[in-house]
Amino acid sequence: MEKNDCNNYYADIEFNRVIKKATNKVKRLPDEKRTPKHIFTDIIVHNRSEENPDNLLAIEMKKSTARGDAKERDKNRLSLLTSLYPYKYKLGVYYKINHDESQILVEFYQTRRKKSTDSRIIEYKITEERGLEFIRERLFDSDEYNIPI
After folding, report:
1. Residues 9 and 46: beta-carbon distance below 8 Å
2. Is pTM beyond 0.90 here?
């Protein structure tokens, strides 16, 4: 963040703000029954200012073997986090890795909608000398690939 003149921004893992034990400052979103629940997004990039909050990026990650309802909750959370109220994240990213197929699905969310035209499949391989090596990237077409979403 510092290298890109973003000194006032932080990348936090499963962050939920609790300021001076004021539980009303904790991030909440409605669940399926519309009951407000605490949320813990996998990774967020934001400033931590109470006066002028600026939320840039929310990332949710899953393995392809995760339960379908857990995947849907993450996607719904990204949709709500990128809505105009209350958190206004500029971009949401859903990242699902399928080790059996050596593929990563990346979906983007903005203003509460999945930007399906920007979704990608990234193919990779694991090598001893370089670790994870990306082979190719292409647009995701759900009809073309047999990838559980």
Report:
1. yes
2. no
